[in-house]
Amino acid sequence: MKNNKIDLILKRVIDISVSLIVLIALLPIWLLIGILIKVTSEGPVFFLQERPGQHKKIFKVFKFRTMKPGSEKMVKGQEVMKDDARVTSIGKFLRRSKLDEIPQVLNVLRGEMSLVGPRPERIASLEDYTPEISKRLNVKPGVTGLAQVSGNIYLSLEERYKLDVYYAENFSLGLDIKIFIRTVGVVLFGEEKYTNKSLVREQG
């Protein structure tokens, strides 16, 4: 991975600073979302699931629950699409706006995740990892990532992995900033708007 200690230190400082701002400034929104989840469907406000992090270290990822109870089982590599019947009414909005990911700032503050990095997958996915794909685990998983701003659910699993590996091998604060800025565009205009519009010239 092409980086230096200064970039990594600055990345951690940015992670902590932004996460604290999101946690404190958006607390009223956290409370509102929690109330809406509880009044529109049965089940807990938060969804916790074990995921492999950097160097395969297992941790529990936090999300606002967007699916009906018992809907967490999925086919490996198969994303939840916009019209998925398992998603709750408020869950559709939370997933579209990416607000369901907000609780992951807690994972960032705990050092388990970064604001930018490959998205953490389910543990079962590790069974299919090749040595090449495993390179995506050389960095901390992120709340948003290169694949998520390059089409995400409209990409094949192989294409997402290539982008993840590219990021792991070519991390820089400049790339992080580009990904973070485009994430705003994804929230406003949708993932489909950025299909075939990669931020990088080569994809692994």
Automatic annotation (TrEMBL):
Family of this protein: Belongs to the bacterial sugar transferase family.
InterPro entries for the chain: Bact_transf
Name recorded for this polypeptide: Bacterial sugar transferase domain-containing protein
Bacterial sugar transferase domain sequence ranges: 11-188
Keywords for this protein: Membrane, Transmembrane, Transmembrane helix
Molecular functions per Gene Ontology: phosphotransferase activity, for other substituted phosphate groups
Transmembrane segments: 12-37
PANTHER family in UniProt: COLANIC BIOSYNTHESIS UDP-GLUCOSE LIPID CARRIER TRANSFERASE (PTHR30576), UNDECAPRENYL-PHOSPHATE N-ACETYLGALACTOSAMINYL 1-PHOSPHATE TRANSFERASE-RELATED (PTHR30576:SF0)
